[in-house]
Amino acid sequence: MTTGTRHDRDGAPQPQRFVISFAGFNRPWAVWIAHRLEEHGHRVALQRWDPQTSPGLTEALEDLARSGSRILVVLSERYFSAGTHTDEEWNAALRTVTGAHPDRFAAVCLTDSPLPSAVAALEKTDLWGLDAYEAEYRVLRRLELPTDRIGTESGRRGPRFPNDPPEVWGRVPRRNPRFTGRNDVIGALRAALTEAPPGASTVTLLGLSGVGKTQVATEYAYRFASEYDVVWWVPAEDRPTLRERLADLAPALDLPRGAGSYGEQIRAVLEALRRGSPYHRWLLVFDGCDSPDDLIDLLPSGAGDVIITSRNREWAARHTSLVEVPLYARPESVTFIRRRARRLSGVEADQLAEALEDFPLALDQTAGWLADSPLGVGEYLTLLRRRLDTHEAVTLSDDYPLPFPTALAILLNNVRENFPDALALLRLFVFFAPGRVPLRLLREFPADDVPEHLAGLINDQVRWNAALNKLVQFSVVRLEYSDLPVEEGGGGLETVQLHRMVHNIVRDDLGEEEAGQLSRAVRQVLAAADPGRPTDSRLWPRYAELVPHLETAGVLTSTNPRIQNFLLHCLRYLILAGEYRTCLRLAEETDGAWRAMLGEDHDQVRELSYHHGGALRMLGHFRRAEVLAKSIADRLVEERGDRDLETLRATSTYAGVLLGTAKFEQARRLLEHAFTTYRELLGEDDSTTLNAQNNVAVVLRLLGRYQEAYDTDLDTLRRRERVLRVRHIATLSSGIGCAMGLRLMGRYREAQARQEQGLKLNAQVLGPNHPQTLRAEHNLGMCLRRAGDIPGAGARLRGVLERSTRVFGAEFPWTLMVASDYATYLREYGDVGEARRISEEVVRGYQSQLGLAHPYSIGTVGNLGLVLRAQGEREEALSLAEQALVGMRGALGDRHPWTLGCALNASGHRNITGRLEDAVDLSRETLRTTGQVLGPDHPMTLSAEIALAADLRAVREDVEASKHEDAGLRALMRTLGPQHVHTVSARQQTRPYWDFEPQP
After folding, report:
1. What is the pTM of this model?
2. CA 364 to chain centroid
3. What 8-state DSSP symbol labels residue 211?
4. For 865-904, how does the pLDDT look when each residue is reduced to its tens digit (9 = 90+)?
5. Contact status, residue 323 vs residue 353, Cβ threshold 8 Å
6. At residue 673, what are phi and psi to the nearest 5 degrees?
7. In angstroms, rounded to a whole number, what is the distance separating the alpha carbons of residues 830 and 799?
8. What is the DSSP letter of 509?
């Protein structure tokens, strides 16, 4: 079948030509083989095997032979499953083609699974499980090529050997040497990932708790490690831990850690994965995510793959493919049991599998117990049947079959009766949350603060290890080791994994007195681990480790002031880290208990309310936040007066909520009073005073008093630069406010220049994906658009919207603001259909969050009207424009710039629908009022003048129209320049419209 190596006249081997035929699944092997042959001087072409494109198998194989090259076939199950052909068809085709071309075909094999019998004619050599040297040697030997230059490199970088580990390998659980079967599941998982559209390779392994989802994901990571440059494992039982582990990927990718922002690391990781830089092929496993809302905004996109393990079928509606992980098939159960308990016969293993209904976790626990017990399977099954008639045998939830808790109870009884230290340790564990138990915290905690019978255990390392090892022996817990170097705090035991079913059964078995002692001890452990500075982002990973255990340990209902302060620190961390939903849930659960224990007026209750209200406000629940903040402010004003520092804090918080509900004048009065009083009590340059001054600038801007807002922002900026220095986060925020003020006043070039510099500083200090940097980039996009850089504006706005949606979610208030601005851009310069879709989503979002009468709801309805006008739906557009005008007048009065903008749009809609006189009347009024409010040279005033000229022309008042048009054009050329888009549009007699822009 093969020929020897060709030599030239001098006896040196001649280069040969090869075609490597492979299934797409095995491309890494084909690419590596091709590279090695090329390094030996041969020419190689790759041909992905797809017999579906040919009339039949024989024809497809003949096409390979027509190349004139030697054919090397990479055999695997996938090669033969690429079509729908039977083994008989394959045998016939292989015999025909190899018989016609006896010297042309050779093969390497990557599987030990049964293959069609005619494969023997290819004289395959096996490569699976070899190192690179041996694999290359076997390929060369099979092709009868010289083997004296194995490993030769010409200097060009080649592909990684498929069996070599990835460049980044992060905390993947140890491979289970007893892993059994599951070939169908792993095959379905691989197919779902490889066949997904680009950027959408996300698969959820779905199944009951304990069915083996984590084991399947782990085995997949090891089997296909050669396909990836990065394999990263993320425990995802709770969001803080998930974020912590995802952020840990940043240094592994050589990304900068940033300056003070924990969330920045996550955003940098997601962006790097999306770009595929520095690694293009990656695999992330999110293990144990039963709450899609915790993960959906953190799912990476790009060229890599994502595996999620979960019990929650809701993932089917979250743009992931589902692969079900079923119970073991009976042969798999028997094989697994006999690997776990070698003393059992096949018949006994079958008996045990039948009793436990082939449930993997139950099999692992019971077979592990039987492995070290003299009890026979028959006796064990008798015990099981006896237990089925008792209350203990009742299934704790519909997710678990009946025998599983029964078998688990037997295991725990064995621990209880024979291993008191192990039982004591286990009972302590169950006052942490199910899942990861941080052993480090227990070992660092003084033994004086735990019950007496535990103190000796914690102080005695030998007893501790013996108790822990016994729990592992009986599969009650699983150890998880750190993969960090020893010098970085790794290299040792970090956590144990405690299954929820174990947790529940042990906890329910405890008496009230002992449970109270243990829960108090764990609360002390957690509080002792409080870093004490939630504002320091470097300490956020420590808080992320603690937060999951707050509820289980009873922290939320503790009467101990030290524990209460610890909880407040955790809530503060959650707000700063952007974990608003978790903060809101914990605050709401705590609120009732604290009010009942401490009373409505207690300082701790008030502090809790600040965090509670902050979470409500950031999530867009403004009405609830307003009620809460008002109650605190009113009470303090009555008790302490309006000049008390705590009262000022409460009234400023209340005013911040009023800004969200568009009660701008009321908020202004409160904020100006706070600023004036702080200045008198603390001085002009105190940081609290400067914060209050910044708040005054915000409300002035929302009131449309742009010059006053800018002057206030500029004074705040200069003071912060002097007191806090240029690179302080608050100083950078004032810089954004100044740039926004310049833009709103129509000083576009100055605004752009200031914001370009500000964006660079924010990116340097905070990182490119910090929320404040995104705010700066969004404002720069708006500056670019107003200054006439249309492509630059589009790129900025699109990028900020994508990142905001991924980080915060589509319904987040900040995201709605960015989406609104991007939709107005698309209406003028992009896809009008997409602009309409986004505009409608924004309107729905604002109306749902803020109500129909809020200026943001009203203004975005007006924006939607402009989209309908662009699509030719004039009457519908007029209706929305008039609705926006009436609504904005009612909300803010006739002289607010937003009302004047709505009037500018409404007059245009009247014009194009034939209501010409009405259009002229409204345009005259709009021009007069705009000039008074914003000044004669403001871009909106000049737009109103050009719009009036258009309306006058429509009623044949050409002389007056020309007068206004000439005046407007001269002013536009003087203020914006002759080539500015506004000037060019006016010169072309294109009627201007106004875009409503929600403000942060």
Report:
1. 0.64
2. 33
3. S
4. 999 999 999 999 999 999 999 999 999 999 999 999 999 9
5. no
6. -65, -45
7. 15
8. T
